[in-house]
Amino acid sequence: MELFLYREADTVLHRLDARTKILGLLTLFTVALLFSQPALQAGWLVAVLALALLGRCLPNLKKLWVLLLLLFLYCLILWPMFVKGPLSKTVAFSLAMGLRLDVMVIAGVIVLSTTRVEDFTVGLQRLGLPGPMAFACSLAFRWVPAFLGTAQAVVQAQQARGLDLQGGNVVVRAGRYVPLMIPLMTHVLRQTLLLAMALEAKGFDPSAIRTRAGESRFTPADDAVLAGLAVLLLLSLWLRWKGYGVVEGVGF
């Protein structure tokens, strides 16, 4: 099992500074949140898929296609229960919400697939995020894949001992996963304690001033991307202010 989404490659996205990719991610999130027209969200989806192809991130998206499909279907089913309006407009709004969620997830996967965790953490700090918060983000990126790897190892170990996790209905299968939580949580608590001891032994101080080797710098490509992101954001804000890209007649 691959514990990290990062994929080693020499692409335009990989060569961009981490700060550029973080700002680009925030811009894509903002643009996706501004509009509720399914046609516009479909356009953003095509755009991020093109970026995924450019950054060679499609293998990671293939791993998550079930999650992306479920998120889309959940939005398509649940949103009509919370919005009021003509059926055609509520369906259009629900489609937009499902596409919006997929766009944001795919954008996040692209950034994690083309940026090392260390570079991402340094980028957050150089953008002004306090060191302790950036370090917490770094631990989260490392801890969640490790947690998933441990969960898979526990499941495989119990299946090797004869535990049947496939037979029966959904409720029965879900009940068989409950005993697995005990060894899983025990391992997580042990690893957390070891991590705390390791940080203490190394004299970790969140407020300490750190020096870094190989400081990254903005290149002309970064400047061009940032300029394009600024134009995209300003144009989207202007269109939203003028009332474009919104499904009219839908309320809560």
Write up what this structure looks like.
With 252 residues, the chain is mostly helical. Among the domains are: 13-115, no CATH class; 130-201, no CATH class. It is 70% helix and 0% strand. The chain has 11 helices and no strands. Helix 2 (18-34) runs parallel beside helix 11 and helix 7 runs antiparallel to helix 8. The longest helix is centred in the middle third of the chain and has 30 residues, at 131-160. The two termini are 43 Å apart. The model has no long low-confidence stretch (mean pLDDT 83).
Which structural class best describes the helix and strand composition? mainly alpha
Q: What about the largest sheet?
A: none
Q: Secondary-structure element order, as H and E?
A: HHHHHHHHHHH
Rg: 22 Å
Q: What is the rounded distance between the termini?
A: 43 Å
| Proportion in helices | over 70%
| Percentage of residues in DSSP E strands | under 5%
Shape: globular
Q: Report mean pLDDT, rounded to a whole number.
A: 83
Low-confidence sequence ranges: none
Query: Count of helical segments?
Result: 11
Q: How many beta strands in the DSSP annotation?
A: 0
* Multimerization state: single chain
